[in-house]
Amino acid sequence: MKVIPTEIPEVLIIEPQVFGDARGYFLETWQQERYAQAGIDRPFVQDNQAYSGRGTLRGLHVQNPYPQGKLVQVSLGEVFDVAVDIRRGSPTFGRWVGVFLSGENKRQLWVPEGFLHGYLVTSDEALFSYKCTDLYHPETQFAVRWDDPEIGIAWPEVGPPVLSDKDRQAPRLRDLPESCLPEYAQ
Ligand SMILES: Cc1cn([C@H]2C[C@H](O)[C@@H](COP(=O)(O)OP(=O)(O)O[C@H]3O[C@@H](C)C(=O)[C@@H](O)[C@H]3O)O2)c(=O)[nH]c1=O
């Protein structure tokens, strides 16, 4: 597999090795030793899958406490996937990384603990799955608006996004109490 660094050192793009033949293809979506060597060495404790239609935007979400590192990928369709560093004291605080993930390119994004995460579906439909390093704790989950001007994510143009009520009402990052923000640990 190929590990591609991004502008935020802890955020990684992974390109698994794909074995194609007359039947289709095969790939390993996670393998403990190899991903640990790439720096993704926390144990995963939950796997999730979400199906969405074009223009659906889920996010931006984070849990604190119980921060979740997420290894995310798309099996069918395409999304623009985003990680935003909101770790208090981080040298890259407020910066974001955005990557197209698709059933075609089979790329994965490693979204570390302490990052906001969100994605926009840019195909007719998308099947999105991810592994998490902590369990879902809804009482500790926070949402930040997808179009927070201070974060300034350059989302692809697909028209007005389809949002959950929670995400539509989400505050800006600057309006969250500082105590909500995860700590930066070197
Ligand atoms: C995330 C999650 C949701 N649920 C339930 C709660 C709710 O009834 C339903 C839909 O939940 P949500 O609206 O929060 O789903 P969604 O907006 O897809 O939430 C996800 O968004 C992306 C961007 C992430 O990064 C994830 O960590 C998660 O926050 O599923 C679980 O049971 N377990 C889970 O781990």
Overview of this protein structure:
The record marks 136 as: Participates in a stacking interaction with the thymidine ring of dTDP-4-oxo-6-deoxyglucose. By secondary structure, the protein is mostly beta strands. The protein has a domain at 1-18 and 56-163: Sandwich (Jelly Rolls). The protein has helices spanning 32-37, 165-168, and strands spanning 2-5, 12-15, 18-21, 24-27, 46-53, 57-63, 70-76, 78-85, 96-102, 108-111, 115-121, 125-132, 141-143. β1 (2-5) and β2 (12-15) form a beta hairpin. It is globular, with a radius of gyration of 16 Å. The structure holds dtdp-4-keto-L-rhamnose.
Shape: globular
Q: What CATH architecture of the domain at 1-18 and 56-163 do you see?
A: Sandwich
Classified in CATH, the superfamily of the domain at 1-18 and 56-163 is Jelly Rolls
What distance separates the N and C termini? Answer: 26 Å
